[in-house]
Amino acid sequence: MTRQHNKWWALGAVSLGTFITMLDITVVNVALPTIEQDLHTSVNQLEWVVDAYVLTFAVLMLAAGKLADMLGRRLVFMIGLAVFGISSLAAGLASTGDTLVVMRGIQGVGAALITPAALSIIVSSFPRSQRGVAIGINGAVIGLSTAIGPLIGGYLTERFGWGWIFIVNVPVVVVALITAPLLIPESRDRSGDRSLDLAGLLTGGIGLFGLVYALIQGNHLGWSSPLILAAFAAAVFGLLGFILSQARRRRPMVPLHLFSRGSFSGANVIALLLSFAMFGLFFFASLYLQNVLGYSAIKAGAAFLPMTVVIMLVAPVAGVAVERGATRPLMVIGMSLMALSLVLFSRLGISSQLWEVLIPMLLGGIAMALALTPLVDVAMAAVPEDLEGVGAGILNTSRQVGGALGLAAMGAIVTSGVTSSVALGTTRQAAFVHGFHNALILAAAVSLLGAVAGLWMRPERPEEESSAGRVAQPAENFEPILASAEVH
After folding, report:
1. Where would you tag: which of 186, 215, 247, 304 has the fewest CB atoms within 10 A of its CB?
2. In this structure, are 263 and 288 located in the same domain?
3. Residues 6 or more apart from 223 whose CB is under 8 A from it?
């Protein structure tokens, strides 16, 4: 097949990898009570079943994007699939809480390799005229996997056992590994630079690890505990060291000039704010549905199904709208609807009916589909071709850090609300609802901040200069360059 003929098949193959990495962010939520009973885990271990995945996913994303550009995007994508599949099988067969946490961390390594490589494969495979639609379809897959995770998790946990929420990844990985060499063209950075920025990897890894670890563990250990303060200090020194190392390097792992482009910086800010709201909503809504409304795992997961359907329907349409120049309105409307959805969620109580839950679910699905597609398109449109893996890594790092921040901030508010309400004699269910309401209002305010940021966004195309400072081809001549890229 020629590149022209197989690009849509390549999108399908890449989307399989994207699907399972995003699925594993939310699929575990409804299974946590069962895991706690079967493995006799501590509360801290249970938290790390979720957090270990997010932590390694976020910390390794930048390095994975650089490796994809340097070694080949398809190759790194396939390595990530193999790591993800093996660790998923091991997680499903885990017999102790510690083993499960370790395997979840290794899953995050695989996800970090898959995600930036997948997005850069899409960008390099499609011409500018079709990229918005392709990214919209991929956005639908991301939204679908995130929203359907609780449903799949609930069904598998009740019918077959919690281990199957991880084992189910294995056949998907096998299919993706078989189809990837046949359908995905290889592409890489052709600048001639093959060196690995060890200083950048070390300082950036320490900085991100310290930041994400502190955000995750702050609620559990206390924000003023020596370990959390040390983690924040490591984050500050590590990230400062990373910035200095990148500024001095001729071919940096993360070219800082990308952030001088308002569209790229703005898209990353909005991605962080959107993930702040999304991650916290999915985590605590799953607990609300089961622990307050008394839903079974399957019913709790099914409550997310309308959101899933809406995302599937709206995201491709949003991709078409992006191609017609509606980027900024879509981001503003999407983030505004997300804020409205969160406010409606905050009106739910201890005896709310299913139809009251479905309304904010539907709005949330529309919001995610409208906001996600244009911000990905805007960010990647501002990145030169030879830095697509790095650009994708930065964008996805923003998502994961935003998600970790959202879980930490909303978790702190929920915990505080529960503690204060129980002290006043309120039932545990009513206390959880009180804390959940307060956390949702914070998330709604963050979403509105994202809408305001969207108002200031001005989509732009890559400057007619490559990352190495050479004069590049005009935008209308990108297609011949892409067509001549290496295809295996």
Report:
1. 247
2. yes
3. none
Q: What is the pLDDT of residues 357-410, one digit of tens each?
A: 889 989 988 888 888 777 777 777 777 766 666 777 778 778 877 887 887 788
Q: Is 118 domain-assigned? A: yes
pLDDT single digits (tens) 10-68: 888 888 888 888 888 778 877 877 888 888 877 667 777 887 888 788 778 777 877 88
Q: Where are the beta strands (DSSP E) in 440-485?
A: none
Same domain for 204 and 136?
no
Domain-embedded: residue 471 = no
Residues near 270 by beta carbon (within 8 Å), at least 6 away in sequence: 331, 335, 371, 375, 450, 453, 454, 457
Whole-model pTM: value is 0.71
Pair 169, 126 in one domain: yes
- Element (DSSP H or E) covering residue 443: helix 428-455
33 lies in the same domain as 67: yes
Which helix (DSSP H) or strand (DSSP E) does residue 316 occupy?
helix 305-323
Say whether both 235 and 170 belong to one domain: no
Distance, CA of 17 to CA of 170 (rounded, Å): 11
Give the number of residues written for the chain. 488
Using DSSP, state whether 465 is helix, strand or coil. strand
Residues 247 and 257 in one domain: no
Q: How many domains does the chain have?
A: 2
Asked if residue 487 belongs to a domain, the reply is no
Q: How far apart are CA 466 and CA 202, in angstroms?
A: 26
Could you give the residue ranges of the DSSP H alpha helices within 160-225? 164-167, 169-183, 198-221
Q: Which CATH number do you get for residue 17?
A: 1.20.1250.20
Token code pair at residue 407: 């879980």
340 class by beta-carbon count within 10 Å (0-12 exposed, 13-18 middle, 19+ buried): middle
Q: In 3-state terms, the chain is what percent helix, strand and coil (to 5)?
A: 80, 0, 20
Q: Residue 56: which of 92, 94, 107, 99 has the closest Cα?
A: 107
Residue 473 in domain: no
Give the SS3 label for residue 471: strand
**Same structural domain for residues 208 and 310?**
no
Give residues with Cβ within 8 angstroms of 160, minimum separation 6.
none
Can you tell me whether residue 101 is helix, strand or coil?
helix
Report which of 45, 193, 157, 17 is spatially closest to residue 105, judged by C-alpha positions. Answer: 45
pLDDT tens string 406-417: 877 887 788 878
What is the number of other CB atoms lying within 10 angstroms of the CB of residue 476? 8
Residue 288 and residue 383 in one domain: yes
On the 0-12 / 13-18 / 19+ scale of CB atoms within 10 A, 250 is: exposed
| Domain that includes residue 290, residue range | 3-184+253-463
| Listed residue (23, 191, 185) closest to 120, CA to CA | 185
For residue 384, which of 392, 374, 373 has the smallest C-alpha distance?
392
